[in-house]
Amino acid sequence: MFPNHAQPLVTAPAETAILALLLTEGPLSRVELARRTGLSSTAITKSARPLIDDGYLHELPPERTAPGAGRPVNPLAVTVDREFFVGVKISADALFVTVCDLRAGMRATAGRSLGEDRSPEAVCGLLCELVGIVLDADPAFRERTRHLGIAVSGDVDRAAGRVRYSVLPGWRDVPLAEAVAKATGLNVTVENDVKALTVAEHWFGEGIGTEYFALVTIGAGIGSGLVVNGQLITGAYGVAGEMGHLSIDPAGPVCHCGQTGCVEAIASSDAIRDAVRDATGDEDLDFDGVVQLARSGNPAARDAFARAGRAIGTGIAILVNLLGPERVVVTGEGLDTYDLFGVHIKDAYAAHCFKAAAKCPLTLRPLPWEEWARGAAILGIQALFP
Amino acid sequence: MFPNHAQPLVTAPAETAILALLLTEGPLSRVELARRTGLSSTAITKSARPLIDDGYLHELPPERTAPGAGRPVNPLAVTVDREFFVGVKISADALFVTVCDLRAGMRATAGRSLGEDRSPEAVCGLLCELVGIVLDADPAFRERTRHLGIAVSGDVDRAAGRVRYSVLPGWRDVPLAEAVAKATGLNVTVENDVKALTVAEHWFGEGIGTEYFALVTIGAGIGSGLVVNGQLITGAYGVAGEMGHLSIDPAGPVCHCGQTGCVEAIASSDAIRDAVRDATGDEDLDFDGVVQLARSGNPAARDAFARAGRAIGTGIAILVNLLGPERVVVTGEGLDTYDLFGVHIKDAYAAHCFKAAAKCPLTLRPLPWEEWARGAAILGIQALFP
């Protein structure tokens, strides 16, 4: 996070546990909080005090669950507009910005196509302009926003706030967090987009309450984010969750990464397009054309989607056999062509899951780009924690 | 663990942290303990007190690091023979038993081939006999042993203390922990052998101090144990680390699990033997015969080992691309034929690692069966913790 001197809101384990539960699960009574955290009621009351005083929590009106059920209880709740968070998703050709409240509710959004100039300077300029626009939507936003999160596809060094590599032209080792922090005056966190979305889904989406959770994205790239024992896997060398680069077919095509038989080399939208170009000899086909061909029944195009589906299903089964997630969420723009390869994904997944691992359901979750920006805003919410 | 009423020795986070550090890293000064745990010196002294009173820790004589370096410090150390732990490894044809001290030092061992009768009752009887023999080696063992760990290959429900499935004949849903607890009077934990060995190596072996660590076993079976953020991955449905059942070749052989192209279907010792039988037409070849053929230069046998090596290397690369371990330890009886496929393992690993994941070194570690029994004893040491 940049600048580095921003302090978390909570540091003590008890406060941390209380705030996390109320943020992700909504209002809870002190009794319920005590039960869930293993703390005493006294400890709950003591730890909640500073958060109430700071305006982050408030007591709801007393509720009686049943007549004669004893003392009325005042549930504790998060004051959602105590603080706001900006999230930015940088995609290959557009920017999406959102302002979220404390429970990740989207309050304002803005999106803009990238112009011709996609250099770090140009994108950074547009980004700050859009951030200004969403923050101007409500005076409270400017007043009570301290954190901004940026999600970008590619190789991101979160600790250093740098984008080491992205598909955008000229983006090599860009000190993005520092630049945006300087321009906006906010505390900035930059993270790989799939990792940010995984944490967002784990905290506020399909992954709530799971200890083992995975999110898989399909489309132009194939990636995954993995949560184990409640924490995102980041890898000892900064590489983890590279589902797109699992080698699953020694006879498969060469990948842009240099390996042979990667899932992405078979199943990305470019890979599908290239396979159909090769099969049909039509070098002018674009991905939309390939989709049309497949939907009209062209065997070569249908085959390419079938192969892609099998590769994705096999890749997810591998992930599930190694990590044993409770649930896998599948998302990304590849879901737009799910009619063409969904059955192959499911068949290959079922065929390659080992024993009880097959209990893990695949949940399809189309997430518009705004949701990816929301994932980025949640990086800011995380910054409240140690 | 059976019976269920055994209490951990430490429960408070501070005591837990101190005992874990001293167990795994050896004597440390209170200053060093404070630095490593983030606790105050006062908290260290207070938390260490009950462990000293119970005889688990003691103070070493004062040491001065340099003349004039200030007050002498008394490092704290674990009193290794305060408590002992029995570990048992059940292999396909033999039993190995060891008594370990608090820092997992092996003090006595015993091994015995299984007889003709390998039923749960027969193995359990022999197991208890061997446990009696090792405990009789020193009166202190009987006096100060409370925990016994059992490592067995197959599908183990650790929480229920049951072996759901193992390669031993007739072993289906065996309540092993309960039976051994009743016979020995000890608290018994049963765990899958690869998982037990992974935790043992993480605490007391090559994995010390790593947050992300993996152990891969090769030989009759192919398996792996995975540690992420310092904790063993167990999977939401009890399945995780199934490296042997990653599907890596759609054109590969059918596996005993029913899938196609599993690592184990290509690279287990049986798979290698079968491939050479098919290629040579000699149905009487056993694995030793195949090894001899390969060492004498027979092309079919050499090819089978090359394919196996590539499958293992690809499987490890997949594991590394998803989890990003700091180090992978490769062990198992398959190391005996490392001369025949080591180069293929390494080449395939290097070819399929994604970017910085390739920094992760493979460490070969031949572990005799006694070490697997030691891994099981460490299950008992873990039982001291919450």
TrEMBL record, chains A, B:
A Pfam family matched by this chain, by name? HTH_24
Specify the superkingdom: Bacteria
Supply the alphabetized keyword list.
Kinase, Transferase
Q: What SUPFAM superfamilies does the annotation carry?
A: Actin-like ATPase domain, Winged helix' DNA-binding domain
From the UniProt record, which GO molecular function terms apply? kinase activity
Name the family.
Answer: Belongs to the ROK (NagC/XylR) family.
**The protein's name in its UniProt record:** NBD/HSP70 family sugar kinase
- Taxonomic lineage of this organism? Bacteria, Bacillati, Actinomycetota, Actinomycetes, Kitasatosporales
